[in-house]
Automatic annotation (TrEMBL):
Gene Ontology process terms (BP): negative regulation of DNA-templated transcription
InterPro entries for the chain: Mbt, PcG_chromatin_remod_factors
Designated gene of the protein: L3MBTL1_1
Organism: Araneus ventricosus (Orbweaver spider)
Gene3D superfamilies in the cross-refs: 2.30.30.140
Entry-linked PANTHER family: LD05287P, POLYCOMB GROUP PROTEIN
GO molecular function, one term: histone binding
Cleaved signal peptide residues: none
Protein known as: Lethal(3)malignant brain tumor-like protein 1
Keywords: Repeat
The organism's place on the tree of life at top rank: Eukaryota
Amino acid sequence: MFLGFTPKEFNWDNYLKMSKAEAAPEHLFTWESRPANPHFRRGMKLEAVDKKNSSLVCVATITDVMDNRFLIHFDGWEDVYDYWADASSPHLHPVGWCTENNQVLTPPKDTKENATFNWNKYIADTRSTPVPARAFKPCSPNEFEVGMKLEAVDRRNPGLIRVATIAEKTDHSLLIHFDGWSSVYDYWVDDNNPDIHPINWCAKTGHPLELP
């Protein structure tokens, strides 16, 4: 469905009434308000979920830090699997988490077949340091609701921010749907991802908003 609003015609208040929807409350967008966490530093080791295959928890390294977010890299793998996260991410765990929770830890890609992975030896061999367990601050399940409206980055064209709706949700993830567009453009995103914004964010920042 193509709605075809023009900038002069579009107004968030009227659009919410027309679509019989509510805006996602501004306080749920928390990524900007979280302070930098000094415990996460470049080169530190941890265990992290592979977002492209969520059944895998892998040996990982922090390769970059920017404010309150850091870049997760899976040891021995290409950087196409890297992703940004913060201390509240449910996808991150301290060294030893898999052992404590009877989960299988996927070792670095270059680990010899049938070799037993040992964190203590690996940390010594790589001259690295684990992220301290106290640094992880897992958040509670999000309070977003299906049907709420927001503004979201178009992953296929990241320079664009569009009017969007939450189509589905899990405890920590949201399925973003662009109003007026096919569901083939929908995508899942963590609830604290900086690609999602409350309504009127574009108006406040001067960024153009792509209309339905």
